[in-house]
Amino acid sequence: MPHEKVQEIASKGGHASAGKAGHEGMSERGHKGGETRAEQLGHEGYVEMGHKGGETRAKDLGHEGYVEMAHKGGSAPHSSRQGKGGQEKHKK
After folding, report:
1. From CA 76, how far away is CA 88, in angstroms rounded?
2. Which of 12, 14, 48, 69 could form an S-S bond across to 76 if both were Cys, CB 3.0 to 4.6 Å?
């Protein structure tokens, strides 16, 4: 079966499941998933995951991006946020 077809079927199943569970049900699922993940990782695992996320963010932003983020209090633009409320700098 083509990958696109598999994705389409999975998407439809996910939407149907979300429709049945509603917002509260989906929120509860997410909360339970987070608790399970925390139990699996333990404190040290969570700390390591945070460090890796920070390192990845630093690589994504580069030195100038990190400086800009510090000046803005942590709200520097990020490629995944563009078009979703992220701010782009426009040079004149």
Report:
1. 9
2. 69
The answer, yes or no, to whether residue 26 has pLDDT greater than 80, is yes
Rounded Cα distance between 81 and 15, Å, is 24
Q: Could you tell me if 10 and 1 are in contact, meaning their C-beta atoms sit under 8 angstroms apart?
A: no
The half-sphere exposure of 64 on its side-chain side, counting CA atoms within 13 A, is 1
Give the count of domains, the chain. 1
Do the Cβ atoms of 59 and 52 come closer than 8 Å? no
Could you tell me the two tokens for 88? Answer: 């782009």
Question: What length does the chain have?
Answer: 92
Query: Does residue 55 fall inside a structural domain?
Result: yes
Nearest to 75 by CA among 64, 83, 86, 84: 86
Place of tokens 């996910």: 14
pLDDT, tens only, 41-71 = 899 998 998 899 989 988 988 988 888 888 8
